[in-house]
Amino acid sequence: MNVWMSPHAPTNMEQGLESALAMARAASPREVRSVLGADMSTLFGLYRVDCWVMTADQRALVLDGENELFLCDDFRHPYAHALRQRRGMRLNDVARQPRLDHPGFQRQVRAVPHNTDLYLWTLAPDAAQAPLGVLACWGSSESIDVLIESDAARVLVDLGAFHWQQQKRSEDARRREHTLRSSLVTLREDERRRTAAHGLGEQVIGQSEAMVALRQQIVRAAETSMSVLLEGETGTGKDVIARALHSCSPRADKPFVAINCAAIPESLLESELFGHVKGAFSGASENRQGLIKQADGGTLFLDEIGDMPLDLQAKLLRVLESGHFRPLGATEEQQSSFRVIAATHQPLREKINDGLFRADLFYRLGQFPLRVPALAARKGDIELLARTFVRRFCEQERRPVVGLSSAALSALDGRTFPGNVRELKNVIEYALAMTPPGQDIDVTALEAREDAQGVEEGQDAETALALEAVTDLRQAARQFEASVIRARLARFDGNRAMTAESLNLPKRTLAHKCQQFRIGEE
């Protein structure tokens, strides 16, 4: 007997139509399955109805919201048999099916009353298509009899399979569209980053693999608000990298504030960073805003961070963690939101082991570490760098732009540059100064600089020998020390960091001695 022709036919008919309409209005395959299962159970008085879903690889069946999984080639459960037969399949009194001993299926059997029958429908829009899943109807023998004889049940199941398939296609189409849109967004982002990295070529010069990769990393770092730690030898251009990173970041229109931690006496460094109020110390005649406050909204560049005193490192860490600080002598805290970029040529990990640098500050600064390659690691960039320095110098001096002879380029390529890009720039500018306007740089102009350095070093050596005749040992030592420092500064083109390193001196000590001997004031 058709259940819709039972004494409750008007109600069942209405429910059947409502079920069909609800599946047509469903917004997802899962909603179709939920309506089909619930209405089949209600209309035919079943204990439960489960709608098992075929996985995308067609290897297993799963149930919405459950962790249970049945493999399609495991015939210890009836769902595998139903899929193979692809037609309705009835099991009378499921508890008496000794061959169906799958643990998961046995748990289902124990969850329903004794003497329960099971009817399985393989759900597929048509015979030519892969099955969508299996509809498992658990009920009494009488309910299953009614279900099997009901044309309405078959109509509902067919409608369910149809709407499930339609929603699945719509869902797949939406997923493909989303994937396509995501791919396009990714492509646009990649293209934007490539364009941005290419745009940095005038600032961060070089076409070597190392420099191309560095520009890409700069763009990536600029997209974040993470702290950046630049590591590399002296003269590699870490300050240039810092400015380039700021220029392509969202903070580009805000201040870029730089400070060299090694160039400022320890007693003044804290005041430079944090500022002070009037009367905070002797000579503080007025309130002074520190660099941390000046960098609010922008970027604070801490060059030579390895030379920052330990007690000041702790105060800096607190600012980086909280954004709050207190100027010297002030009673109230101030706030500043900035992005910090730090740079060093020193091995900070070794300094940590030696107790000279805080490990917590190192990890806070190194959220996005960048290694700046030495010029020796990218010698292929020497010609491009040299020509760029020639052009910039000529534009600055309002001279006609000239070139470099092949001999000069060969000489540059064969030369070592312990001072890296800074030394190369000084060599080019000296050669230009020694070359008449309008003429290309020749190798003789490069050699003239080496000859000049040799003469200076020879003069200093003669001076040192002459000091042996001095009877005042203390005065002689002072003069000799000053002579050595002058010679070494000349050798490194006035670069105090390299001079201090070559003499195994702290940079603050060298700065003090230069002031003491009036070196640089001549």
Automatic annotation (TrEMBL):
Pfam families: AAA_lid_14, HTH_8, Sigma54_activat
SUPFAM superfamilies named among the record's database cross-references: Homeodomain-like, P-loop containing nucleoside triphosphate hydrolases
Keywords, in A-Z order: ATP-binding, DNA-binding, Nucleotide-binding, Transcription, Transcription regulation
InterPro entries: AAA+_ATPase (IPR003593), AAA_lid_NorR (IPR058031), Homeodomain-like_sf (IPR009057), HTH_Fis (IPR002197), P-loop_NTPase (IPR027417), Sigma_54_int (IPR002078), Sigma_54_int_dom_ATP-bd_1 (IPR025662), Sigma_54_int_dom_ATP-bd_2 (IPR025943)
PROSITE patterns assigned: SIGMA54_INTERACT_1, SIGMA54_INTERACT_2, SIGMA54_INTERACT_3, SIGMA54_INTERACT_4
This protein's record includes keyword DNA-binding: yes
Domain Sigma-54 factor interaction positions: 204-433
PANTHER family, A to Z: PTS-DEPENDENT DIHYDROXYACETONE KINASE OPERON REGULATORY PROTEIN-RELATED, TRANSCRIPTIONAL REGULATORY PROTEIN
Protein name as catalogued: Sigma-54 dependent transcriptional regulator
Species this protein is from: Larsenimonas suaedae
